[in-house]
Amino acid sequence: MPSKRETASSSRLRMFLDSRASGWSALVPVIALAAGLLFGVTAATAQGEDLRSDIQTVPDLIRDRAHDNSTRELAVERLRREVDEATVQAGGGDGQLQALTDDIQGMQGPAGFAAVSGPSLTVSLDDAPLDAADLPEGYDVNDIVVHQQDVQGVVNAMWRGGAEAMMIQDQRVISTSAVRCVGNTLILQGRVYAPPFVITAIGDQEAMRTALDEDPTVSVYREYVDAIGLGYEVSTSDKTGMPPYSGQGQLKHARAVR
Fold this sequence. Notes:
By secondary structure, the chain is an alpha+beta fold.
């Protein structure tokens, strides 16, 4: 026969369990209501579509922005032609405006806003055809890819060698164009490129070749060409045509070179 202490203990246990069950019973409708509200909001937001499909990866985002930039460049070029045509028409009877228009057109060539052609020098930079397991001792994976400073070094050397016009990949660039690399991809004026990176400049071929040979950044790159096989090719052409620069001129301060 249970003792009084055992009977009292059992009674208290039943009371505790009954109170816990009553508490959970009261919470069940609240939880159900909250879950229903959550499902309803999700369904209204999705509108029959998969919400996860809206999540973009970085490469997808870059491709979308590159496409947008290409579309806007076409629109800018169209508007620029319309402005030029309207300016010519408006300046027909105004001598001062016509003189300013002539000055602007005369400066378009040196500034890069006019198509040009002439003898050119081309430099191609490429990653080394090695895997991480094939690397010589003392080198790592960063050494087998072309970096931003490598492209910039070639560009600077060619400008220094007297380049009159320049293209990187399929885009005309000017002296203020920014060269940026993310990993082993090049981002230029809103577009993304994979190696090999091709830089072509119109000008004195021998002077630009000499500038490349004497440039310290290019010299370091060529040491890695010999050591681990980075790509470096130089070629010339008697005549190369280049379109005008299609970007915006953002030069704010300048000083005459004396």
